[in-house]
Amino acid sequence: MSTATVSDRVFNFSAGPATLPLKVLQEAQENLLCLPGVGASILEISHRSPPFEAIIGSAEADMRKLLNISDDYAVLFLQGGATTQFSMVPLNFLNKEKSADYILQGAWSKKAIGEAKKCGNVNVVWDGSSEKFSRVPTQEEIKPTSGAAYLHMTSNETIEGIEFHYDPNTGNVPLVCDASSDFMHRPLDMKNFSLIYAGAQKNVGPAGSCVVIIRKDLLEQQVAGPHHTMLDYKKMVAGGSMHNTPPVFTIYILSLVMKWLVNDIGGLDKMHELNQKKANLLYDYMDASGGYYKPHAQKGSRSLMNVTWRMRDEDLEKKFIKEAKAARLDGLKGHRDVGGLRASLYNAFPYEGVEALVGFMKEFVKNNG
Amino acid sequence: MSTATVSDRVFNFSAGPATLPLKVLQEAQENLLCLPGVGASILEISHRSPPFEAIIGSAEADMRKLLNISDDYAVLFLQGGATTQFSMVPLNFLNKEKSADYILQGAWSKKAIGEAKKCGNVNVVWDGSSEKFSRVPTQEEIKPTSGAAYLHMTSNETIEGIEFHYDPNTGNVPLVCDASSDFMHRPLDMKNFSLIYAGAQKNVGPAGSCVVIIRKDLLEQQVAGPHHTMLDYKKMVAGGSMHNTPPVFTIYILSLVMKWLVNDIGGLDKMHELNQKKANLLYDYMDASGGYYKPHAQKGSRSLMNVTWRMRDEDLEKKFIKEAKAARLDGLKGHRDVGGLRASLYNAFPYEGVEALVGFMKEFVKNNG
């Protein structure tokens, strides 16, 4: 097959791995044989070499700047995705003598709860299943358990398309947040969180890296061991994400995405504005479609990252997905667990792609009304 | 900085991450913006998409062909490197009621033992520390414990540069092998092994992927749980390496390396011949250097992958490393734990690089005799 070019690229609505900034891909491509001044590919250099130390250092420094992360927190680049964090959080902070609070708000928080139960007692402090996970709880509905090791929330449920638009106040109970699918799409007030983790293959990089931001004083709450090295936050912090060989290339791409956020976007306030503009275009059109397109999420909990909706019946949904793909709008099929449609509009997804989708949706109504 | 080109590439003796085949880097570069026929970068496509299913499928099929792996074994692409396997093996097969045998033969097996002790009883069946880890044990020196859950060996110790050139017979005790630094540099007789794992950033891919080959009937020996999902071989086998998002790009590069081994090298017999030729050139020269260059490993245990040696004193070693780097021979510094020099000659490292090194060594003797 011949080489594909930029003009062959489709609008990729995939829920993750997902669209990356074209500028990042171009820089990575240009330097893939040989990093300037280094004499070898980023795929080949030692993780202990000064060039990689500079890369991981700049990734962390830019992330700290963008999210305004103080020295009270450590920033880790780990492996195994959010699913490994589902275990790592309770393995460090929960045991049979303790309990932890979990908000059950969708498919991913359900999995997190499953792993936590292997370590200790879980209090489900709010359960959204009776509303088909169509919203997140209000502040009033979240009642932390006194003495709980932590309270776990999922800031954005990728599958259902619901998102927190406020930071819960959990009083003395440390707040732990799975931010996999909305990490760095807006500014955060870090002081509200004791630990944030994110599988990085949405807004900040390709598959294979996981970011953890952890308050250093939370480490003192670690339960008695022994702790396996790769699952021990204390050892990971002590080793500066390099206890063993980190996923070098993934962190390199992440460092380029951070530079794009700083230099090309101009920070997370600007990013958030753009993300609101993209999601609103789609939600507003659906709200005005007279029920032809029915958003799953309740107003107030609608995700800016994953817009989910249903149509009249499954046959029509299948037709929509098929014709959209032919129109170069790819990845719109909803998750197999819930069906329907999903458009993921992560940071790097362009506004023009949403315009193209809405244009297609209008045509589709005309032809299938 | 301007774009670097192929001619800027140095000879990279790094112990891992390490040199990859130029052809692999070139193909990855060509398609980095957009996989032909797909419309998106390999860094952006869903791991559940048909294009990625084809990639991971071809990676596994080629690996099975190259190593002659039967259906009695599952092949897994996991994350977290060999260090995670140090824990995952005992978490699955060892507990306080059981014991496991470990060969202590260098820095990496020592770390594996450290993690295993967190799960159950460890019998160190052979200890090479009194000989400064300069050789592996003979078959006669390995006495498996009756009833041991498994016996753990390290086929190549990267830091000390010693390697097994035979497969130990462990009778009824399942043999588990950390093959991180010599995986796929030669053919294997899989029936001698119950489980092989390898951090993939040496011979088969970039940092961030770990290959595990496991006999399916070993899964029945799993100790009672609960087992955390990401650390549970049964769940990983059931999910076909895709329980959660795998490191897509790393597996893609690995698939290209497999194609290179099949099509360009012509299989692992050919690869082994070439690796012997490379290592022998260097060892033979050092043996004839009248003690100027002193190989660390004893004959019979010398690694084809990591050639380690000492010189008269540390100042001379430092001078050697500095001048070699200036001569475009990079990454020759020994591991910080043992000092000295190390030349890693993995599969993709070219014969011309060893010729260049030997040429440099001869000149260095003349100038510093």
Give your account of this protein's structure.
The structure is a homodimer of 369-residue chains. Chain A has 369 residues and is an alpha/beta fold. Chain A has helices at 22-30, 50-67, 81-93, 107-116, 233-238, 248-265, 268-287, 314-326, 351-367, and strands at residues 11-12, 73-78, 99-104, 121-127, 151-154, 156-157, 162-163, 175-178, 195-199, 210-215, 294-295, 306-310, 329-330, 341-344. Chain A has a seven-stranded mixed β-sheet with strand order 2-10-9-8-5-3-4, covered by helices on one side. Chain A has a three-stranded antiparallel β-sheet with strand order 11-12-14, covered by helices on one side. In chain A, helix 4 links the parallel strand 3 (99-104) and strand 4. In chain A, helix 1 packs across helix 6 (248-265), helix 3 (81-93) runs parallel beside helix 4 and helix 7 (268-287) runs parallel beside helix 9. Chain A is globular, with a radius of gyration of 21 Å. The first copy, chain A, starts with 10 loop residues before the first strand and ends with a helix. The mean pLDDT of chain A is 96. Chains A and B meet through helix 1, helix 3 and helix 6 of A and helix 1, helix 3 and helix 6 of B.
Strand content of chain A: 15-25%
Characterize the largest beta sheet of chain A: strand count, sense, and whether it forms a barrel: 7 strands, mixed
Number of strands of chain A: 14
Structurally, the number of domains of chain A stands at 2
**CATH superfamily of the largest domain in chain A, please?**
Type I PLP-dependent aspartate aminotransferase-like (Major domain)
Distance between the termini of chain A: 40 Å
Q: What is the class of the largest domain in chain A in the CATH system?
A: Alpha Beta
Task: Detail the poorly predicted runs of chain A.
Answer: none
From N to C, what is the helix and strand string of chain A? EHHEHEHEEEEEEEHHHEEHEEH
Gross morphology of chain A: globular
Relative helix content of chain A: 25-40%
Can you give the mean pLDDT of chain A? 96
